[in-house]
Amino acid sequence: MRTLVFAVCSFLTVSSLCIAEDYTWDNPSGGFFGEPNNWDPNGVPGDDGGDTVRFTLPTAYTVTLDNYYNNDTLYVDGGSAVTLDIAGYEYILDYSPESSQSVVIGEYGQGSLLINNGNVFSLDVSIGQFGGSVGSLTLSGSTTQWTTLYDEGWHGVSIGEDGDATLSVLDNAQFRHGHGGSAVGAESNATVDVNGIDSEWYVDGEFDMSVWGDTMVNIANGGKIDIGKLNMASEYGSSAQINITGEDQQSELQLHADVTNSLTIGKNGMAAVRVYGSKLLNTGTMTIGENPGSSGLLEVHEKSWVDTWNSIAIGGSLDNSGGRGQLSIIDDNPGDEYGVDFTPTEAAGQFIKVWPQGTIAMDGGAIEMEYDVNMANPIILQGGTLQGNGMIWAHVENHGGLVAPWDEEDNKVLEIGYNYTQDATGTLKIAIAGRDPVSQYAHLRAVQPNYGQVSLDGILDVDLIDGFVPSYGDEFIIIAAQNISGTFSNAVSQYVFQDGSFDVIYNTDSYDSVILTHYNPEPACLHYPVADMNRDCKVNLLDFAIFAGEWLDCNLVPESYCP
């Protein structure tokens, strides 16, 4: 019947039944929606169809539904702070002939809308529409749900279109829509809070979190955000941050679209996701710091679980280097069985790729990349950094990257459950602050049965720190493995550095090992010559071979800048 009325209205110009009216709430004390005296003009919006509802009184008040209502558009503005008590009914806003939104909260000024006790169905929603506006939408209570309608693949929501906006989903409420964005304008600021067990913000398709502006998202106390595909900090100058906080991994961020870049943390701007005692599930690929100039951080704390079902790129895309990206794993209690569990990839052929401006920093915890029994995917350092301590159930391939086992407080062991390969351009950095092999000097371990194959080339870089000076007879086991092949190019039998020299022993006892011993303050290399490619303090044919091997190489990004 409603469709028929609209069709007739498109052809008739004179019909009182076809004229949509604007109804403005006129009772600062609040009251029932269906009371004609509460409106200007006197009447009830929705009786004739095609009506617009405006709440613009600059005060706080409660409006209670006393029936099911169907209006076209809803505006909350002018300093109005409305609590809309649905009272177990349904409120539908489903037609907007003059704009793409059927709901605008904070059009030019300030507007606040609190929904409880029922369901709202609408077309597109804008919170904080124009520059200088401030809009706030709060859904509260287990019987409260807002859903954008399911025609043509769902409708969208703008949280801070050009103004500032807040979305709060509290105490078991649900907010569901098809797509959208936040902090769309450069001056726009958006805040999203999802708090309480079973409180959920659901986006079926793609969401751009911070297009040009700034967004802060907090998921707490069992709340959940479930988005198909999430782009964080889409454009240069934008910023976006998500904090997931809870206990027993109840709070959750989920990305359910099994597509390329279903989670992008820092597309062109700055973005961070921090997980505290909670859960992150991503069914597609992930990029952290995707494009040049961007910055991305994924920080995973104690008692958290991150499960991603596909490849991850840090400091670039899956195919090309990009911005600055970091994965930080922080386990404050390394002996706790509920530490940090980071589980990327689930099938053969997947990987974590760390580009030159990418870093994996571990402070305890585990990275588990096994996809079958005794089968694991690789972490590929394409010039990036792997540092810290913890357990890595993966192959580690160091192609021009830096591996640096260390922890400032305690354990200085980086343990690899599968194999480690370092090519001619890779570096292993070892810091020595004392004689204890766990707490005072760094080392790499790969001793798991059936694996533990270590292939060496490239650079060894040793630092004596905290004023420590070894004795001649001290031995430092910097690598322990099932099998070691190859040697460091700058430490075949002796390693010379700023503080002196070590003899280097490649041992083949019960475990293969690389041992530094016979420290001597002479000879020393006060600084490496510029042309010393392999950092052995001598410029010779080995350095020329490295130089010639990269002659005319170009690493400019994008590649079009290369001649």
Key structural traits:
two-stranded antiparallel ribbon; 563 residues; 2 helices; mainly beta; elongated; 48% strand; 53 strands; 51-stranded mixed beta sheet; disordered N terminus; single chain
Mean pLDDT: 91
Q: What is the strand tally?
A: 53
Helix content: under 10%
Structural class: mainly beta
Radius of gyration: 30 Å
Low confidence ranges: 1-17
Quaternary state of the chains: single chain
**In one word, what is the shape?**
elongated
Strand % is over 45%
| End-to-end distance | 67 Å
Q: How many separate helices?
A: 2
- Biggest sheet character: 51 strands, mixed
Question: What does this molecule look like?
Answer:
It is a single chain. By secondary structure, the protein is mainly β. Helix content is 3%, strand content 48%. The protein has 2 helices and 53 strands. The strands form 2 sheets. The protein has a 51-stranded mixed β-sheet that branches. It is elongated. The protein starts with a helix and ends in a 14-residue tail after the last helix.
Question: What is shown here, in short?
Answer:
This protein is mainly β and 563 residues long. The protein has a 51-stranded mixed sheet that branches. A two-stranded antiparallel sheet has the order 37-38. It is elongated.
